[in-house]
Amino acid sequence: MDIKLIVGRASRNRIVWSSVFFVAAFLLLSVLVTQSQIYYTYSNLFDILFLGLFVVLFASSMGLGFRKGDLIYLAACLLYFLATTLFFTRDMATTAVSALWVLLWIVVLENANIRKKDIRWISAILFLAVCYLVLLSKDCGEWFDFQTGEFILNPNRSVFQTRLNPNTIGFLLALFSGLLLAVSKEWAACCKTGCELVLIAVTLAGLICCKSRTSMLMFLLFLFLKYALPMKYKQNYRFVAMLSLLIIAAGCILPVIYTTLYTNRYGIGLEFMGKDIFTGREWIWEYLFEEVGKTPFGWIFGIGAHGANIEDSVLNAHNAYLSIYMRFGAVGVAAFFGYYIYRLKKFYTAGSLNRTGMDVTMLGISTLLSGYFETVTLWHPMLFFTGFVWALPVCLTKGDPIG
Questions:
Q1: Which one, of 153, 244, 254, 182, lies nearest residue 213 by Cα?
Q2: I want to staple 395 with a disulfide (CB 3.0 to 4.6 A). Which of 89, 114, 316, 319 is the partner?
Q3: From the centroid of its chain, how far is CA 367?
Q4: Closest residue by Cα to residue 247 from 360, 341, 355
C-alpha cells in the first residue's frame, strides 16, 4: 500500500477521533451540566456548525476507501430533504440540515479506525455519564408533570434535581448503559458477569425512577437481543435486517393502532411506573392525521415541522416516525430510516464480524424502538450519540482486533 495513503489514513483518523471527543464532551456538558440551555439557545447555529465539520471530514475521506454508494445516497437525501423543505412544506432550511448531518456523521465515523485504547477511554466516559444519570433519575418522575410537560417547582431541590425531561434522562441512561454492556469485554475482563449484573440492576432502577416506558422497552429489548438471541441469528444479515424493518414498520403504524385502542376505550395499566399506556398522545396523533389530510400531497411530502400548531405552539408528535413523516412525508421516512438498514448491510459485508460489533448492532436496533412514544431520538444531541452507535460496528472491523 502507498505510504502516503497510510499516513493520510492515520492523520485523518486522529482528526476524526479528536472531533468525536470534542463534540461528545460539548454535548454532554450542554445536556447534563448546563441543563441544555446553551444548546436550546443556539440549536440552529450548532446544526450548521456540525454539518460544516462533518462535510470537511467527509471531503477529507475521499480517496481513502470511501464508497460511491454512500455519496449517491447522501446526495439523493440532500436533494429530497431540501426540495421538500423549500418547495412543499415551506419549512426552515435547518430542518433539512439536522436530518442530513446525522447521516453524514455516521459515514464519517465509519471510515475511521478504532483501537482498544479508544474503547477503554469511551467506556470510562460512559461509566461516569451513567453514574451521573442515575443520580439525576432519582425521583425525577415525581417532579415532572407528564400530562402538561411542565416541571413542578420544588423549593427543596437537591443538587441532582435537573430540569431535563425524564424521557431524555431515561434514553441516555439506556443508551450509555447498553453501550457499556456491548463493549464489556474490554472493561470488565476480571469480573465481567458481576459488573454486568450490577450495571443492569442500576440501569433498570434508574429507568423506573424516570418513569420512561419507551427507554425501559428499549433497554429490555437490547438485553434480550444480547443475552437470549442465539448467535446464529445475530450473524444472519437477513434476519437482522427483517427485524429492523419490522420494528420500523410497527413504529409507523403504531399511532393508528394506538388511537383505535383509545377510541374503543381499551387501556392497560403500568402499575410499577404509576402510569397508563394512554397519556395524551392519542389525541395528538388524531389531530396530526387530520392536519396531514388537509394538505395536498401531505401524505407523500409531509406538512413540515410547523405544519401542526396549537395556539401558536409547535406540536410535538411524540413518535419519531410520525415526526419524520410530518417533515418529509412517506418518502422521507423511507430515506431516513432506510439509511440504517443500509448501514447494517455495510457491517455484515465488511468481512470481519465480531461479537462486540454484533452486540453494538443489537443496541442500534433497540434504539429504533425508543421512537414509538417519543421524539427524543431526533433531538440533535441524541442524533449524535445514536449515530455513534450505528457507526461503531463498522469501526470495530478495523484497527486492533476486538471481540
A1: 254
A2: 114
A3: 6
A4: 341
For residue 229, the number of C-alpha atoms closer than 13 Å in the C-beta half-sphere is 22
First vs last C-alpha separation in the chain: 27
Q: What pLDDT, on a 0 to 100 scale, did the predictor assign at position 30?
A: 65
Alpha-carbon distance of 119 to 122, in angstroms, equals: 5
Q: Quickly state the pLDDT bin for 160 (edges 50, 70, 90).
A: very low
Using an 8 Å Cβ cutoff, are 359 and 333 in contact? no
> Grid cell 437482522 — which residue?
240
Pairing, β 309-310 against β 313-314: antiparallel
User: What CA dihedral angle connects 382, 388, 391 and 393, to 10 degrees?
Assistant: -120
Cell of 106: 455516521
pLDDT, residue 234, reads 92
- Nearest of 269, 130, 142 to residue 201 by alpha carbon: 130
Helix 192-210 vs helix 166-182: crossing angle, to nearest 10? 170
Residue 189 reports pLDDT greater than 70: no
pLDDT of residue 363: 96
Q: Is 356 helix (H, G, I), strand (E, B) or coil?
A: helix
In contact, 336 and 99? CB cutoff 8 Å: yes
Give me the pLDDT at residue 5, please: 44
What pTM, to 2 d.p., does this model score? 0.83
Helix (H) or strand (E) segment spanning residue 70:
helix 68-83
Q: Please state, in angstroms and rounded to a whole number, the distance separating the CA atoms of residues 6 and 4.
A: 5
Give alpha helix (H) positions in 138-212: 166-182, 184-187, 192-210
